[in-house]
Amino acid sequence: MAVLINVRQDNRKNSNKLFYGKVIHPSTVDLNGIAEQITNLCTVTKADVQVVLTELIEVMNYELANSNKILLDNFGYFSVGIKSSGSLTKDEWNIPENLKNFHINFQSTRNTTNHKVTNKALGFGYKYKILDLVEKPKQEEDDGE
User: Fold this and answer.
1) 23-79 per-position pLDDT tens digit
2) Where are the beta strands (DSSP E) in the chain?
């Protein structure tokens, strides 16, 4: 098991042409899949696990909507963050004009001892693997075969 990383060159018109890593997500695990895995690790039924996870999501949404931070022990903190534009004065700043987007922040609390990753990324304590992906030539993509 490892976090999969694809390293590619930034080829946009005005870019610096440097190479950057991007995490590859080979699949998505949904609530049902998580409940199945938890059931395989303990004696609790899948239905009971699904109910608890569904209610966890409800409680997390409620707490985040009330601007609270959520700590899941030995995993990390979740909190709401926003992206906004500036205004010349505090009184001119308002939600319709200045609030651009909101997002959920995650800050890991995993143990970083003996790991080379030292930033505040989700990757604390995870292994990484750089993939050697070969991109298809344009004509193969456009053939429709």
Assistant:
1) 898 899 999 999 999 999 999 999 999 999 999 999 999 999 999 999 998 889 999
2) 3-9, 19-24, 70-72, 76-84, 99-108, 128-131
Nearest to 3 by CA among 87, 110, 95, 100: 110
Angle of helix 46-65 versus helix 31-41 axis, rounded to 10:
130
85-118: b (≥16 Cβ within 10 Å) or e = eeeeeeeeeeeeeeeeeeeeebebeeeeeeeeee
CA distance 50 to 85: 40
